Target: NAD(P)-binding protein
Amino acid sequence: MASPTAQGLVAAIRQSPPIDLTIPYDAAWVKDKVILITGGASGFGAGFVRHWAKNGATVIVGDVNVGKGDALAREVQKETGRKSVHFVHCDVTDWQSQVNLFKEAVKLSPHGGLDTVVANAGIAQPDIVQNPGDMSVAEPPKPKFKINEVNWTGVLYTTHLAFYWLPKNPGSKDCSINSEPGKQSRDRHLLLLGSLASLAPIAVQPQYGAAKHAVLGLFRSLRMSSHLKGVRVNLICPYFIDTNMVTPGARVLLAGGGLGKVEDVVDAGTRFVADSRILGRSLVIGPKVHVTQDEEGQWHYVEEGTEGSRETALWEPCADDWEDTEAFNRGFVKILHAVQTARGWTGWAVDMVKAVGNALGLVR
Ligand SMILES: NC(=O)c1ccc[n+]([C@@H]2O[C@H](COP(=O)([O-])OP(=O)(O)OC[C@H]3O[C@@H](n4cnc5c(N)ncnc54)[C@H](O)[C@@H]3O)[C@@H](O)[C@H]2O)c1
Model:
């Protein structure tokens, strides 16, 4: 029998089942939600902003690009005929700037709270990690890891502030698989922007790859415990998508392959924001393709119209940690379980005595 520690761990994980992408959601479920998004002035961010505002949400955009952010807010307000989008200047690498963004967003919120926070701001640029520059100097100067600051430190700041403001959202309840999207607008939802580079290495971009792996680690860890604050956390992992972020050089390298589309990222993000029953899940977004799936769950690329095929750009990576789906984890977790079983209740009791002694400063 598993020890109380193992039982407690399993009970602590709150994750909804894999998303069935054949079941539709209603974008109108975002109506009346208040959504804060970083980096919302262009790319996916702007796509989210337009779609959510059109469907009745109020969106507060924090971005360093004042020109694009202001123009977007004015344009969408005109289109929707209401104060659906607000722009606030924010540099996500600056703690105080993010603090101000969140405070301003709460002031602008028609109901005085935030239902969803989207940590979307990100950059890609030539990476210096493996390029220290002038090789003739005695020692390289201290580097500025800008990609890490925006794509990781910025995300941590956003996450920290989300865990302060989301639980305070007036009228919101703890997140639940049994919530009723469309009936209850109040929510506590953090949506993280990872990348396929969260799941796989990315050549010549080690800093970007490491930062996005870090976002994945953040997501996997948070989803084990975010429910303690009633907050649900989800993750989007796009493949290369047709935005300004994909440089001409990358486009040359990718030529002949497929780029994903902003509309499909918006579809994935809207499902997460709209459907409050989705807890701790991730979606990968790639080029739209026709596929079939065999009995072992393997996907096959097929021609349009092939019997049993469907068209999709979205994929569930099925990161069901506690089912030990990853090969290494499966083996390693088995060993850990075996250790726990071998030590049994006696081992548990010894450890508990040690833990109490440690807390009292009696045991080191
Ligand atoms: N486009 C892709 O292929 C792709 C693939 C995977 C993941 N992503 C991720 O998706 C997110 C959005 O990317 P995108 O393709 O829409 O890029 P984008 O360049 O079109 O948009 C990024 C936005 O972030 C803003 N921004 C940059 N630095 C900022 C800072 N310090 N503070 C506040 N805002 C800042 C920019 O001004 C811009 O509006 C990023 O996190 C990116 O890493 C993109």
Observations:
- The chain has nine helices and nine strands.
